[in-house]
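Worked example

This section walks through a single chain of length 375. The input is the sequence exactly as stored; nothing has been trimmed or padded.
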Amino acid sequence: MTQALLALADGRVFRGEPCGATGEAPGEVVFNTAMTGYQEIMTDPSYRGQLVCMTYPLIGNYGINPEDMESSRPWLSGFIVKEACPYPSSWRGRTSLDAYMKEHGIVGIQGIDTRALTRHLRDQGAQAGIISSVEGDAARLVERVRAVPSLVGRDLVREVTAEAAYGWAEGTWDLRRGYTEPAAARFRVVAFDAGIKRNILRRLASLGCALQVLPAGTPAEAILEMKPHGIFLSNGPGDPEPVEYLIRTVRALAGRVPIFGICLGHQILGLALGGTTYKLKFGHHGANHPVKNLLTGGVEITSQNHGFAVDPGSLERFGVEPTHVSLNDGTCEGMRHRELPVFSVQYHPEASPGPHDADYLFQAFIALMEGEKGG
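Given that input, the structure is written out below as tokens.
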């Protein structure tokens, strides 16, 4: 049987079997603790430049279907699983995981000890790696891994953002009817696409937002000419600091239009307001992360996918206060300005996959726009 290798920058090598396309895939190796939602994970542009290890042992059980795509194609660099299910069983499934990966040229590896890999990344931190089903020399592969560029300092948003503006008119999913019609439009909302997920757009549309999705490089002047009631800053991949063009734009818009940011959008907002960000040791990737709401004292189980975080201490003198905090490691999971109509969270309230404990944040954005519109 053909062998596949996963080599890490620190010299650790895992041997397994090929999964998906034949070839090699370099990237930053991270682990995701979600039990389901592998299709949404694969098509989330936030995973650009990463090799994703799923901690749940059997992946692909329910196949792949067209409805659960979070974008037009998979964006991760490679996929690592304990076992890729060869015979999926679901009335919604249209193809297998392996066939889908082959179709889109995604290189994967299966049959390795994913628990050992996860513990290694937890202890040593996320790091560069290469999956290969064509190179059998482990030592040579390790040497090549050390030339894989870090995510720090790289602008990956330019690789995933939309090439041109587009509208969105699809509501949330209903089991009997599929995706529904959006609610009657009450608010003009501009969404910056830094790697936006479709379910975010569906959730906003279902609440009466007429959405115009714009490339991340759209200047502030063009936004203001559209006279939006609100601005949404999307999720996206990698390090926020190199995305200087979007940071400048958000800085120019803050205080003039209500702003809501998620994930990378949260980090972009933090930088625009004067704060700093830093890289986490192994990031937050999963659908079961507990977060404390500092405003209510309640705890929310959240879906997360980020390798960088905002330093809340760097924002104190700029009138920004934390609103949510991770109960796992104490990192900032949400913030708001004390005077300006802007707020953000580090996690994904739309889930997809994951829990919907934080869905109220979309309503909070609506309320913020209503207040500014009424004023």
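What to look for: The longest strand covers residues 276-293.
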